[in-house]
């Protein structure tokens, strides 16, 4: 990927844009409920049916409390007002996009997490999270269906001289049927996140459980690992080199997974996908290693061009997606070019979302049924 493309991608990742649909305060509906990702028993933050968020922070000696929503605190924040009981309270100026958002508190210039909310690793730190109910949230809801297993593993990495962590999702029947082997998807997170992102923020295991229960997909294993082999700080993605992580993934993690799990360990049953920076990694590695993966997916993570691909016969699927508030015309044009060149290419545009997890949850829901078709 060219340098200017990486810089643009980094800017998109860091912006963490959170959309606001402006509504006059008089029209706010007072049906606020605790966010679905609050700490147990915590009433705040709250969200209402319009997508407004309301916050309450106890800081009696503070001089200023601001809620900064989005990676890096996009949109300037929501200023809370101190009341006589020592609590600071306030409501967002507009309704938020549906889905998951990071946020933090700025109290007298210091950055803190909200004690009422669960924490999620994003923006290179543990951030508070808030969930705005989506009209289509049923596909990633926790339901009374058979559940797969999400386990933490550690695998040896000689190239980095350490043991590295990954999370592995195995389908519900994996531990019942001791003979069946499964295809594998290697699924990468975005910049500033880690290997917990797809399960914690993305709810990928619940999406899989629900799709399998409905008979919509061929069950497969998912492997999620940390996509960085060096510390890349804000503005430094242009200097990111794929080769060290490519070694970790292809030469260390994949052999470990094939040895320790019942996998179909050939190229035709192996896929790679990633969101944002993970899409950048997916693009580079799949182009560099055409004998390793047969299914490619970029979720808000760039595009493929036919001339980049060395051997068309080795590719079963190219999936490219983004939110409608990103650059959908670029995705659609790229997929048309790939189709015209004879590739099995599919585009997906998530309506009314930007560079955010509802885009990627929806994208995964569309991608999963397309993987590993006979």
TrEMBL record:
<dbReference type="InterPro" id="IPR014756">
    <property type="entry name" value="Ig_E-set"/>
</dbReference>
<keyword id="KW-0378">Hydrolase</keyword>
<dbReference type="InterPro" id="IPR029058">
    <property type="entry name" value="AB_hydrolase_fold"/>
</dbReference>
<dbReference type="GO" id="GO:0016787">
    <property type="term" value="F:hydrolase activity"/>
</dbReference>
<feature type="signal peptide">
    <location>
        <begin position="1"/>
        <end position="20"/>
    </location>
</feature>
<dbReference type="InterPro" id="IPR000801">
    <property type="entry name" value="Esterase-like"/>
</dbReference>
<dbReference type="InterPro" id="IPR050583">
    <property type="entry name" value="Mycobacterial_A85_antigen"/>
</dbReference>
<dbReference type="InterPro" id="IPR013783">
    <property type="entry name" value="Ig-like_fold"/>
</dbReference>
<dbReference type="Pfam" id="PF00756">
    <property type="entry name" value="Esterase"/>
</dbReference>
<protein>
    <submittedName>
        <fullName>Alpha/beta hydrolase-fold protein</fullName>
    </submittedName>
</protein>
<keyword id="KW-0732">Signal</keyword>
């Amino acid at each position: 990927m060219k340098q200017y493309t990486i810089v643009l991608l980094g800017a998109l990742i860091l912006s963490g844009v959170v959309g606001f649909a402006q509504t006059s305060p008089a029209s706010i509906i007072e049906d606020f409920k605790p966010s679905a990702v609050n700490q147990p028993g915590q009433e705040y933050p709250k969200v209402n049916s319009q997508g407004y968020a309301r916050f309450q922070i106890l800081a009696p000696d503070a001089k200023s409390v601001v809620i900064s929503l989005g990676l890096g605190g996009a949109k300037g924040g929501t200023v809370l007002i101190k009341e006589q009981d020592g609590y600071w309270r306030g409501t967002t100026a507009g309704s938020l996009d549906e889905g998951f958002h990071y946020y933090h508190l700025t109290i007298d210039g210091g950055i803190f997490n909200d004690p009422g909310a669960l924490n999620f690793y994003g923006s290179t730190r543990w951030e508070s999270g808030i969930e705005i109910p989506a009209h289509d949230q049923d596909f990633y809801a926790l339901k009374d269906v058979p559940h797969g297993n999400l386990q933490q593993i550690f695998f040896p990495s000689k190239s980095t001289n350490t043991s590295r962590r990954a999370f592995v999702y195995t389908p519900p029947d994996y531990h019942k049927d001791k003979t069946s082997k499964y295809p594998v998807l290697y699924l990468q997170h975005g910049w500033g996140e880690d290997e917990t992102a797809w399960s914690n923020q993305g709810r990928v295991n619940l999406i899989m459980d629900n799709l399998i229960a409905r008979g919509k997909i061929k069950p497969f294993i998912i492997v999620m690992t940390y996509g960085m082999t060096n510390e890349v700080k804000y503005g430094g993605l242009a200097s990111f080199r794929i080769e060290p992580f490519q070694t970790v993934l292809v030469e260390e993690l994949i052999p470990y997974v094939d040895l320790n799990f019942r996998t179909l360990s050939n190229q035709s049953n192996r896929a790679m996908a990633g969101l944002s920076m993970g899409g950048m990694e997916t693009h580079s590695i799949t182009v560099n290693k055409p004998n390793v993966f047969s299914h490619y997916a970029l979720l808000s993570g760039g595009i493929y061009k036919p001339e980049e691909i060395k051997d068309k016969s080795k590719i079963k699927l190219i999936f490219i997606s983004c939110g409608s508030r990103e650059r959908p015309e670029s995705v659609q044009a790229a997929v048309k070019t790939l189709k015209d060149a004879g590739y099995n290419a599919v585009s997906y545009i998530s309506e009314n979302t930007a560079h955010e997890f509802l885009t990627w949850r929806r994208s995964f829901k569309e991608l999963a049924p397309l993987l590993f078709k006979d």
